[in-house]
Structures are given as structure tokens and as C-alpha cells.
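**User:** Hello, beginner here. Are you able to go through the protein record under this note? It all follows right here:
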Amino acid sequence: MTRSTRERIVDEALRLFAERGYAATSVAEIEAASGLSPGAGGLYRHFKSKYEVLAAAINQHAARTRSQVADSLAELSAMEASADLEERLAHMCRAGLAKVREESELTRVFFRDLSQFPELVAVVRQGLLQPMFDAIVTWFMAQPEYRDVDLDWAGIAAVLGGSVVHYRLFQETVGELPGHAEKDQFVTAWVRLAVGLLPSPAPVR
């Protein structure tokens, strides 16, 4: 699919911000990477400032996350009739790992540059991070095995979701896998711990 000029500017700017940092990236460099004449002001036909490009990237990723969370929940719901609980848990874990990996550029920008933009930190928190944790709560509460189980699902989501986020963030920031555990090892352990930490499932009615 051909990207519009605006989309190219946002995508290339985020890539450059992730590689070099927000302050170290010039408008001319963004223009050049986007296929525009560097220094000719092409970026300003679409955005008022470099900050507006950054804000657009953050908001677009937040909007995409909300859509992806909804799609993932629908896909997981469709699995219920044909998959056992451990298979569903593994699918959810892998979806979370894929999502965090997809946001690797945004992650680097977040840790390096966003502290100076608290309003954008709020967008990341409310639009990207919290929806992932909320989705875990929604998923557990929808499973027939746990329909009548009264647990602190928010706390469980914080532990299980936090480990998924940490696995990818550790790899992204340190350059190695935590504990040198490969992804399949992590998923298997995550599923076993998730099942083991929960009470015995109630009979399906």
C-alpha cells in the first residue's frame, strides 16, 4: 500500500527519533527521509512543527493499539470452542509479545525523550499501556472456566502483563533475552505460572 506524504513523514520521523533522539533529529533530516527536498519546508505543509509530528505518531499508535486490542479479544473469543485454556493463554501471551515488539521504536522514544512531554506520556499510558492490561482483565473475566471466580483480576493482569512487557523491554534495552530464555521458553513458563497461580477452574456449565 502506498503511503501518503503525511504518513511517510510520521513513520520516518519516529524511526529517526528512535535512532538519534528527538532533539538530535532536524526537520530537514525528516524531510529527506520522507522523500521531500531537505530544508525546503515540505514538512510544514502537513505539520506546524516537529513536535506536532511526534504527537501525531504517538496518537496514531494509540489509536492503532485500541483497534488491535479489540481485534485480539475477538480472535481469542473465537478460539474458546476449539482450544483448551493453556492454548488460549499461550495465544494471548504471544499476542502481547508481538505487540510490545511492534512498538520498539516508540519504546525507545518513550524512554529517551518523552519525559519532557508529559501530555504525550499520558497518551502512551492511557492509549497504549493501560488498554493492554485492561484487555487481560476483560479476557479472564470472559473465560467460561472462571465465570464465577472472584479474584483481583487487575492485580493478576499487572503481574502477567507486566512480565510480557518486561521481557521485550529487557531485550530492547539490554540487547539480550532476560535469563537467556527464548520466546517459546518464556511463553511456556508464563502459561504454567498463570495456570498455577489461579484457583482450580470451575466446571464449565
Notes: The mean pLDDT is 89.
